[in-house]
Amino acid sequence: MDMALDKKTTKILAIETSCDETSASIIEFKEFSNKKLKLKIINNIVSSQIRLHAKYGGVYPELASREHNKNIIPVIQKTLCLNNKPRSLKQSSNLITKQLENIDYLAVTTTPGLIGSLLVGVNTVKTLSYITNKPVIPINHLSGHIYANFIDIDINNQPKFPLLSLVVSGGHTSLYYMKDHFQFELIGETIDDAAGEAYDKVAKMLNLGYPGGPIIDAYASKFKISKPKKLQITNYKPKNLFPRPMLNSKDFNFSFSGLKTSVLYYLRGKKITKKFQEKVAYEFQEAATDVLVTKTLKAAQKYKVKSILLGGGVAANSRLREKIESQTIDYNLQTNIFIPPVKYCTDNAAVIGAAAAYKLLKQKPEKWYDIEANANSEL
Ligand code: KG4
Ligand code: ZN
């Protein structure tokens, strides 16, 4: 059994504004031996702009940063449980300073993302740090998606190294090999569209709205495969309607652009009924998840990892979740699969706080004047 070395709890206020969710979270952790942390989410407030962007069929960057500007202070106030509207600026800053007294560190997503959106979170955290002198932990958004897997996990059942992490989001499809905390080795990534982007684009072609992932997921699960009447074979497997790009390539890269184009060609001249939407959603999802799961499991075999972690918005996908679990058994892999609860797959600040806690094991926090937002920086 692990012995607690240091029973002191540390608190982090984390902020996430990289895309279209304004989020703040307070997370608390205790350090145990073997670099194990017991994380507890005290509060995680997410203000989503999805409805606002839906009418544009995707995130409208200029609008996103304006919305973050509007929402960031109310979201932080709510996270800190400051319900009373302060009467003056002085009172407001006194209240926030007082609330931040119990916070040890500030954390913020500094990269990658929409620059106008990132800047709102980063500048807010710089200001809070300037006022309170609290150190800042700059976080790469993708590490947040990975460390979502360390939230609410019993100290003895945490992911074991070496591990493999599949980050599947609206902007990324990347496989990382990790020998230890905060050591990310990119072993494969998409050479064109991200998986989430393909879900969103296919949903758009099917007139299903934005964001496409959850809608395709729901439509696909309604589709029922009907077996041809004459065939009575029990494990009848219908022919794939769409290709599985790069399924058998020797590397661990992905490609989703060709799959998206195949869907586009298939739709030409066809009447889009609800049944048809369900069928195409199902066929597309089978193709996308086949590639994601097969390549991840092949990488797990090659790198002999002890755990596989999923993260990012597409990790919320019900079919991907069940397929990776069932195929791990088929592959006879002695690997534990970790998939965060759906609320920690899509963007939120709790996962940024979780990453920050683990980053502290490896790196010193920074001063506010050394923190910078950066639209494109890899892990
Ligand atoms: O991680 P995330 O919230 O934002 C980025 O970092 O990009 O991921 C958003 C992406 C969108 O493309 C969305 O369609 C997709 O995640 N997504 C899903 C599901 N829920 C969200 N994709 C497939 N199935 C879902 N259930
Ligand atoms: Zn994300």
Topology, element by element:
Layout: E1 4-16, E2 21-32, E3 37-48, H1 50-54, H2 61-79, H3 89-99, E4 105-111, H4 115-132, E5 136-140, H5 141-147, E6 163-168, E7 173-178, E8 185-189, H6 195-205, H7 212-222, H8 257-267, H9 274-303, E9 307-311, H10 318-330, E10 336-338, H11 349-362
Helix pairs in contact: 2-4, 5-11, 6-7, 6-8, 6-9, 7-9, 9-10
The protein binds 5'-O-[(R)-(carboxyoxy)(hydroxy)phosphoryl]adenosine and zinc ion.
The site of 5'-O-[(R)-(carboxyoxy)(hydroxy)phosphoryl]adenosine has 19 residues, from α6 and α7.
Low-pLDDT windows of residues: 1-5
Radius of gyration equals: 22 Å
Overall mean pLDDT score? Answer: 93
Tell me roughly what share of residues is in helical segments. 25-40%
Describe the protein.
- The chain is α/β, with parallel strands linked by helices and 379 residues long.
- Helices cover 40% and strands 20% of the residues.
- The chain has a 5-stranded mixed sheet with strand order 3-2-1-4-5. A 5-stranded mixed sheet has the order 8-7-6-9-10, sandwiched between helices.
- α5 (141-147) crosses α11 and α7 packs across α9.
- The longest helix has 30 residues, at 274-303.
- The chain is globular.
- The two termini are 33 Å apart.
- 47% of the residues are buried.
- The structure holds 5'-O-[(R)-(carboxyoxy)(hydroxy)phosphoryl]adenosine (KG4) and zinc ion.
